[in-house]
Each structure stands twice: as C-alpha cells, then as structure tokens.
Amino acid sequence: MNNQPWKIAIIKDHYIKTSFAPLTRYSPIIEGAPVLIAVFLDISLSYDRTKDVQAIGACIQNMLLAIHALGLGGVWLGEILKNKDEVSKVLNAPENLELMAVIALGHPAEEGVKRSRKSLEEVVFLNNFLST
Ligand SMILES: Cc1cc2nc3c(=O)[nH]c(=O)nc-3n(C[C@H](O)[C@H](O)[C@H](O)COP(=O)(O)O)c2cc1C
Questions:
Q1: What's CA 110's distance to the chain center, in Å?
Q2: 132: helix, coil or strand?
Q3: Which residue in 8, 62, 99, 129 is deepest, having the highest Cβ count within 10 Å?
Q4: What's the CA-to-centroid distance between 78 and ligand 1, angstroms?
Q5: Atom from ligand 1 closest to the CA of residue 57
C-alpha cells in the first residue's frame, strides 16, 4: 500500500541536541555530531506494526548507506529509545508519532573500527534448523 510510515526530524539546533545528551549513555556521540536525525513511525498510517517497523528499519539503513556514500559518518542510536517519550516531548512530536531511532551524523573523526560478526554457521541453516 506504499504507506511510507516514517516522519523524520533533522536536528541542528544546539539547545535541542544538548537536551538529548542526558537521555542516552551514548551522549558523547550526540554531543560530537553536528546533525541528528530522529526517525519516527507514524502509527496513524500503520495497519501492520511489524511490517511498518521493518519499513522504518529499511528507511534508516538506506539513510546510513547514503550518509556513507557521501563520505560522512552515521551511527544508529537505539539505546535512546528507553527515553523515547522525553525525545518526543523535546521535539513537540504529536501523539501519533513513535520514536524508532536517532541517527547521529557528521564528518568521521577517524576510520571506523571493523566490528565482529557472528559466524555464518551460527545464523544460517540449510533447509531446516536441524542441519549442522
Ligand atoms: C537497531 C540498532 C540499534 C543500535 N543502537 C546503537 C546505540 O544505541 N549506540 C551505538 O553506539 N550504536 C548503536 N548501534 C550500532 C551498533 O553498535 C553497530 O552497528 C554494531 O556494533 C556493529 O558495528 P558496524 O555496524 O560498524 O559493523 C545500533 C545498531 C542497530 C542495528
């Protein structure tokens, strides 16, 4: 149905950015980024929550890929969701918007560290989950 259930706030205002910092243990990332992108699900457009949350995840991932392609750096911040109501309040978000993530974005200060991934054997199975 092409409902495009996202609403996005781009935040450059110093005061708003500062008020986000105490809401997450990743405050240094928030404070170090010149721009934040707050991504919301518009629940008034949603008829299947799982599908629409997946759509938001794809939206966020596409933004991260575009950020990377522009030579910038972006970090997906999910831990701040524990304070999503406070974030919504600071942004004057209407009731129908639910925070899904904040992206911190800027010029990377250093090359990213390559993070580990689980082995394929741990996550991919052939035919059924009994295979080894
Ligand atoms: C759903 C989701 C939520 C995340 N939340 C945070 C977060 O709150 N803080 C943070 O520093 N990184 C967060 N990340 C980034 C992950 O820590 C990072 O993707 C992971 O360590 C793997 O690193 P890589 O993507 O550079 O390979 C999140 C990533 C995802 C997919």
A1: 21
A2: coil
A3: 99
A4: 7
A5: 1
